[in-house]
Amino acid sequence: MAAAAETSSDRTLRNAFGSVLSFFILLLIGVLAFSIRLFSVIKYESVIHEFDPYFNYRVTQFLTKNGIYDFWNWFDDRTWYPLGRVIGGTVYPGLTLTAGTLWRILNSLNIPLSVETVCVFTAPIFSAFASWATYLLTKEVKGAGAGLTAAVLLAMVPSYISRSVAGSYDNEAVAIFALIITFYLYIKTLNTGSLFYATLNAIAYFYMVCSWGGYTFIINLIPMHVLLCIVTGRYSSRLYIAYAPLVVLGTLLASLVPVVGFNAVLTSEHFASFLVFIIIHVVALVYYIKGILSAKMFKVAVTLVVSIGLVVCCAVIAVLIALVASSPTMGWSGRSLSLLDPTYASKYIPIIASVSEHQPPTWPSYFMDINVLAFLVPAGIIACFLPLSDASSFAILYIVTSVYFSGVMVRLMLVFAPAACIMSGIALSQAFDVFTRSIKFQLPGISGKSEFDAGDTSSSSVVAANDAAKPDKSEETLKERPSRKNKKKEKEQVEKASVEKASTKSKKEKRLLVLPLEASVIALLLLVFLGAFYVVHCVWAAAEAYSAPSIVLTSHSHDGLHVFDDFREAYAWLRHNTEVDDKVASWWDYGYQTTAMANRTVIVDNNTWNNTHIATVGTAMSSPEKAAWEIFNSLDVKYVLVVFGGLVGYPSDDINKFLWMVRIGGGVFPHIKEPDYLRDGQYRIDSQATPTMLNCLMYKLSYYRFVDVDGKGFDRVRQTEIGKKYIKLTHFEEVFTTHHWMVRIYKLKPPRNRIRGKTKKSKTKTSATSSSRKSVARKKNPWH
Amino acid sequence: MARSTSKDAQALFQSLRSAYVATPSSLKIIDLYVCFAVFTAIIQVVYMAVVGSFPFNSFLSGVLSCVGTAVLAVCLRIQVNKENKEFKDLPPERAFADFVLCNLVLHLVIMNFLG
Amino acid sequence: MVKLCVLIAAVSLLPILCLSFSPDNPTDRRVLVLLDDLSLKSSHSIFFNSIKSRGFDVDFKLADDPKLSLQRYGQYLYDALILFSPSTDRFGGSLDLAGVLDFVDSGHDLILAADESASDLIRNIATECGVDFDEDSSAIVIDHKSYAVSETEGDHTLIVSDDFIQSDVILGSTKVEAPVLYKGIAHSVNAANSLVLKVLSASPSAYSANPSSKLSSPPLLSGSAISLVSVVQARNNARITITGSLDMFSNRLLRSGVQKAGDSNKYSKSGNEQFVTELSRWVFHERGHLKAVNLRHHKVGETDEPAIYRINDDLEFSVEIYEWSGKSWEPYVTNDVQVQFYMMSPYVLKTLSTDQKGLYHTSFKVPDVYGVFQFKVEYQRLGYTALSLSKQIPVRPFRHNEYERFIPTAFPYYGASFTTMAGFFIFSIVYLYNK
């Protein structure tokens, strides 16, 4: 039929146009994701940010210099002195291997980028990949239009930007990409039932395990989803193919990574997957037997099995529970327990509680981090229910669990962001669909084509049509068949209908909702305005809020821009003025930066794996000078580094963190008691502070000679004058203070050559020079 | 009561057997393969219970290789089974090719993890 | 011509100057003696001559000499200082309390003698070194039971003592037979001070008081708590002798005979000369000065020092210890030097065996713990210089390919994996070719 041929050629032309357009749109999305993260490079410089990325950068340097075998076996003796750290077995290698490979490829192509440049720009590159992966994932859930919208939303969402700006070289930079790809491959396997995608899924899961400790989210979410599908009666053999090989291959691959090792089979975080593995086998067997038996026989089988099997099952479960309950944390790690019970960390593990990223988020942070998406997510959830398919049920489960976890820890907002983007993408795309269809149906001259255009989704802005017709059609039928409960199909976005299906579809089309023309035009404009607001907010957040490298600080004042580069100044001083083997003690926040930039051995660093060692340093900082000297001397420490913000008003200095030092030290050494440092429950450093506080090492090292600056010793962060102004150091000597007094370095004095007798020193009348010197000094320093 | 249940059980087994005999031979070969794999896995578990789990990684890789081959064979069976409506468009050669690929990855990982 | 000779003489003197105190040649060469009045040069000539005869350059100066200085342009002019100026309130020139203490802290030796006219300056120097003279400035040591018998009835301020420290290093191998005569003030030593030793203590019946006035309260210092001669070995091995009797060094007491009250033994010569000579030998580093060099370690079978060890490695450790005999370095032979393999606590503690020529060696196995260890040799014996050496070395765990390749108990698992692979192969053939 000519008309049919004409429409099919029209359709292929439109499809071709659509796929080319979507390809270019995806390219632009990638460029957008990359470039919005470049603000920090433009505003400051191409430098690695924060604390953790410095450790990753140092590991990457080692990898590029020494090769993978040495990296795999690397024993680092320059940190956690004198315990050392086995890097090969305690680091997630995904990020460093990725950056190392990238560097090696670029260098073999004779593009001589330095390791630092590759590290700085890894995160933006992988965020571009992540947005493409979101497109693929959402396309599997709802269709190409939703896919493109979700991709554009993810490229810009501030929560993801905060952890993947250029310079934030941390695990999440590649882990989010791995997460989304793993989910995409899982959904693809679920939709197609192909073992090929199941293999790819396992490999992507392996990449995720290599990259981030958050892989436990995947290995718990997927079993939950499988269980949900079984319970809601959506079991199918595709589910088995999607899940069972993943468990086997995934567990094997996860055990390959040294930092996970046998935890992949021994810890409670993985037990859910094994349990559901057993359950799905039972269910598969039941369905199989049901398929080959008649109904009556099946009933007999059921009663027989239930009576015997129940006893066996209970016995096995009882043994398992006894095994798990015998360990004190029931097999869960501390961090996982703090996720399940938000109050756990503050009661038992002060180190986990002290990290600012582990605090629960505040309500405004939701609006800051996902902005407009917070309103679109509920609409997306509803859209996923109409119709409910396996993939959309997965999306709903993903968003529900990630909302809960993001409420526990602010760091997990990052896992919530892709889910929010997917949901919002679905909602936006559906809304656009309805409005443009309403406009199209009500514009004259177009309504006649409604029969043939039944399947088209020609909205004005974004459209995408899949290339392959037949597998899509079968996909559609497969997805819709299990959802027996759905009658309403108005808002469904059917991809492509062949001519023979058009008749059935058009019957359904006649029941489609069509809104009045003016309303839909206005609504369309409002949606565009909403999108514009989102874009403006994201760009502002990327530029102002999340691009600070935190190793360089700036402040604007009436006389221009001040740059505070004190940290690097101090590390450079250490690098050039101390011996290679000298040990530097500081609070654990600065450990990674000290080893990476100053190249000196440190006592504790950000890895915080050994609580006793950190408690030793904390105790030393909280003790009086002599006791602190003894502790540091036993650890062979030569230099002590403290961060002090009182002169310039830098709020994250060691005096503000001091109570955590007391708590952590007191957790291991009971003679350090927190109430000794508080006056009436309040933490003070002014004249009302307790004597223990005024005599502790941290106080002395922070405020030594501070009174010489302005004569009064006014601390700009605490907004008071300090309590003890004239400080005399007997066991330490100051060797360096940076330009804005932000970092102060002290050296341990060697033990005295002679030990003094007990007689008090008497002043001779004729030793004029020494006595005059002493009396002049006395006038200036009334020692307390 | 017991006799009726035993009679029911016998009738059940009879119908199971007759239904099973009707399956095509290619599926029966797969089933045999699965049984072989599971049997090997059970032997290893018994051995571990006797000797102890010292080279735990070897134990894991041995058991998981057997379990993995069993699972993959079941997946192949699902895809090749003509009664399965969902896969009637999937050419069996494609199913077998996927099966081979997955097994290759599995055995590569096993060799790496074995010791 | 004359100028040339002078020039040559001056140039040839330079190496002699360089022969002064150095780590290779620790005996002091140039000694400065500060006196209250120059008559001490003759009244203590035996002591000074014994020093000079051992090869020292002795320089006598008055304590308030305005041209007095210990150093010039940052270099010290003397290697040792003898302060025989108890009543000096203020040194001349640029010397003061801090200067004396800096001199000691830079590794030089000091002999300090006080008497009943000791000034605050001398007392302060002693206190800074760890020795407390009696605060009562008029008190001297009186002993009514252990005094020196003499023709005239004295007030028992000239006392004898034979309560020597048991140390061959400090006092020489020959035992001092005759007791030592002493007349001066008392000092005490803080028992908690680990650097100070009492070389000559008073007898239990001694006490420190003013001999010409009645005692109103019990004396603060009495009995064996009174130390007559103390030595201090500072952490940088500078040696200080402090005593409260300048007369102990004088010719009169060196030559006189001695008889302790209540003791029938009469010695024709007091033990003072032997005592002070041997003591000065020790103070000037002619005895008891050790050096430890060549701390080496290597794996068994190799000779190079590795940068890192692995756990359960076998290694050998060696160190050489020498003693200065006054003229040359002799091997130091003993059997109680120990080495620790230390990481916050000693994991390995072994006594080193010697080859009688100064080389000490041992071998042991690196413990099963990884981390950053130190080889520590700590040797502190009475009278000897303190040896404290340490060398840092990291210890790594096994590499991934340093474990056993094939574990016998795991053969069933290997077998199972290979049979699975074979089964897969066979199955695919059978399946593909099945009609």
Automatic annotation (TrEMBL), chain A:
One of its GO terms (molecular function) is dolichyl-diphosphooligosaccharide-protein glycotransferase activity. Its main location: endoplasmic reticulum. It is a multi-pass membrane protein. The keyword Lipid biosynthesis does not apply. Pathway: Protein modification; protein glycosylation. The lineage of its organism: Eukaryota, Viridiplantae, Streptophyta, Embryophyta, Tracheophyta. It holds the Pfam family STT3-PglB_core. Keywords: Endoplasmic reticulum, Glycoprotein, Glycosyltransferase, Magnesium, Manganese, Membrane, Metal-binding, Transferase, Transmembrane, Transmembrane helix. This is dolichyl-diphosphooligosaccharide--protein glycotransferase. The chain crosses the membrane at residues 20-42, 86-106, 118-137, 143-161, 173-198, 204-228, 240-265, 271-289, 301-325, 366-386, 393-410, 512-536. Signal peptide: none annotated. Its cofactor is Mn(2+); Mg(2+). Residues 469-502 have a biased composition (Basic and acidic residues). Residues 451-502, 753-784 are annotated as: Disordered. It is found in: Endoplasmic reticulum membrane. Belongs to the STT3 family. Residues 753-764, 775-784 have a biased composition (Basic residues). It comes from the Eukaryota.
TrEMBL record, chain B:
Subunit of the oligosaccharyl transferase (OST) complex that catalyzes the initial transfer of a defined glycan (Glc(3)Man(9)GlcNAc(2) in eukaryotes) from the lipid carrier dolichol-pyrophosphate to an asparagine residue within an Asn-X-Ser/Thr consensus motif in nascent polypeptide chains, the first step in protein N-glycosylation. N-glycosylation occurs cotranslationally and the complex associates with the Sec61 complex at the channel-forming translocon complex that mediates protein translocation across the endoplasmic reticulum (ER). All subunits are required for a maximal enzyme activity. It is a multi-pass membrane protein. Belongs to the DAD/OST2 family. InterPro entries: DAD/Ost2. This is Dolichyl-diphosphooligosaccharide--protein glycosyltransferase subunit DAD1. Keywords: Apoptosis, Endoplasmic reticulum, Membrane, Transmembrane, Transmembrane helix. It is found in: Endoplasmic reticulum membrane. The keyword Transcription regulation does not apply. Pathway: Protein modification; protein glycosylation. The keyword Transport does not apply. Component of the oligosaccharyltransferase (OST) complex.
From TrEMBL, chain C:
InterPro entries: DDOST_48_kDa_subunit, OST48_MD, OST48_N. Residues 297-435 form the OST48 middle domain. Residues 1-20 form the signal peptide. The keyword Endoplasmic reticulum applies. Component of the oligosaccharyltransferase (OST) complex. Belongs to the DDOST 48 kDa subunit family. This is Dolichyl-diphosphooligosaccharide--protein glycosyltransferase 48 kDa subunit. It comes from Dipteronia sinensis.
